[in-house]
């Protein structure tokens, strides 16, 4: 069990917690007036590191002010400091030290992404959406006043961004493609269950096909890139694909090893309904099927003798 806050911690006084760091332009802002950045791509997780941050703030206060921008309704949008804001809310503080910046929408995106990319651990899903947000903001900036000129032309945007983030151009494009993958499949990449290059192949499929693909992977096995190549080849000649057709293609192109041999059998609900009464439960149907298989096995063994 992770250590929870409040256990054997030397409590800092309220006055110390509310103290404003000596940073130029820093002020205190009501926590209730700060909202998360729209489509914030970085996850705020209540893990051991968050518990450490909460304890640190309880003991020392907020040492580094958050960065926000004023929005039209008189409230503020968080630019940098979502984890600190979460920790402050956990403690129950009503105000937080903050620096208010005058950013337009694209400037805010650039600042938000850049500040969060300094984290030690960044998930593939976070990189995907963060890179996509920054890439789109940089493309929109082309042709604007000179303060944006360092981004060059639209054709150069990926090269400039790749240099900024320390990725190759090809790897950047892989992450940009990941932004087109549905969350449940992208979560498999974060968990290292699905290879990044395979997820890139998934990104070229429509959302509805991706949803069927996820269902297949949950019922059978994680797909490989060559299986998805076959699906994409099918879709070149067909506008749509049914669930059954998708599963057929994936099964036919699955690895032909012994362990996978028993993962390629699919019996549809519609087919089962032809043989079982509507009131039969799943367990009753399974029992009948096992009995029939056992009888078939005995008969098959006799025929071989």
What does this structure look like?
The structure is a single chain. This protein is an alpha/beta fold and 305 residues long. The chain has four domains: 1-102, Conserved hypothetical protein from pyrococcus furiosus pfu- 392566-001, ParB domain, CATH 3.90.1530.10; 105-179, no CATH class; 182-266; 274-305, no CATH class. Helices cover 52% and strands 8% of the residues. It has 15 helices and five strands. It has helices at 14-17, 48-60, 82-91, 105-116, 124-141, 157-165, 169-178, 183-190, 196-202, 207-219, 225-237, 243-252, 258-261, 269-273, 282-304; strands at residues 26-30, 34-35, 66-70, 76-80, 95-101. The chain has a five-stranded mixed beta sheet with strand order 1-5-3-4-2. A hairpin with a 5-residue loop joins strand 3 (66-70) and strand 4 (76-80). Helix 2 (48-60) packs across helix 3 (82-91), helix 7 crosses helix 9 and helix 11 (225-237) packs across helix 12. The model is unreliable at 1-18 and 145-152 (pLDDT under 50).
């Amino acid at each position: 069990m992770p250590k929870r806050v409040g256990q054997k911690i030397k409590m800092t006084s309220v006055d110390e917690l509310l103290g404003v760091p000596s940073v130029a332009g820093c002020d205190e802002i009501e926590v209730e007036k700060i909202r998360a950045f729209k489509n914030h791509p970085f996850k705020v997780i209540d893990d051991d590191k968050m518990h450490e941050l909460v304890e640190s703030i309880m003991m020392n206060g907020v040492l580094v002010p958050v960065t926000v921008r004023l929005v039209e309704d008189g409230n503020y949008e968080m630019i940098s400091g979502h984890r600190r804001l979460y920790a402050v809310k956990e403690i129950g503080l009503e105000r937080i030290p903050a620096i208010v910046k005058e950013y337009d929408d694209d400037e805010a995106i650039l600042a938000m992404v850049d500040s969060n990319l300094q984290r030690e651990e960044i998930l593939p899903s976070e990189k995907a959406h963060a890179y996509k947000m920054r890439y789109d903001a940089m493309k929109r900036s082309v042709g604007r006043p000179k303060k944006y000129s360092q981004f060059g032309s639209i054709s150069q945007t990926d090269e400039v961004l790749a240099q900024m983030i320390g990725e190759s151009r090809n790897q950047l494009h892989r992450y940009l493609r990941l932004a087109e993958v549905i969350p449940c499949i992208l979560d498999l990449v974060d968990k290292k269950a699905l290879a990044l290059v395979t997820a890139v192949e998934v990104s070229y499929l429509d959302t509805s096909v991706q949803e069927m693909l996820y269902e297949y992977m949950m019922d059978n096995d994680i797909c490989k890139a060559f299986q998805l190549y076959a699906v994409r080849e099918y879709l070149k000649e067909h506008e749509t694909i049914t669930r059954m057709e998708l599963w057929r293609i994936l099964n036919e192109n699955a690895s032909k090893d012994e362990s996978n041999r028993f993962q390629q059998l699919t019996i549809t609900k519609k087919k089962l309904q032809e043989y079982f009464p509507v009131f039969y439960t799943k367990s009753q149907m399974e029992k009948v099927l096992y009995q029939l298989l056992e009888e078939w096995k005995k008969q098959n063994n006799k025929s071989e003798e």
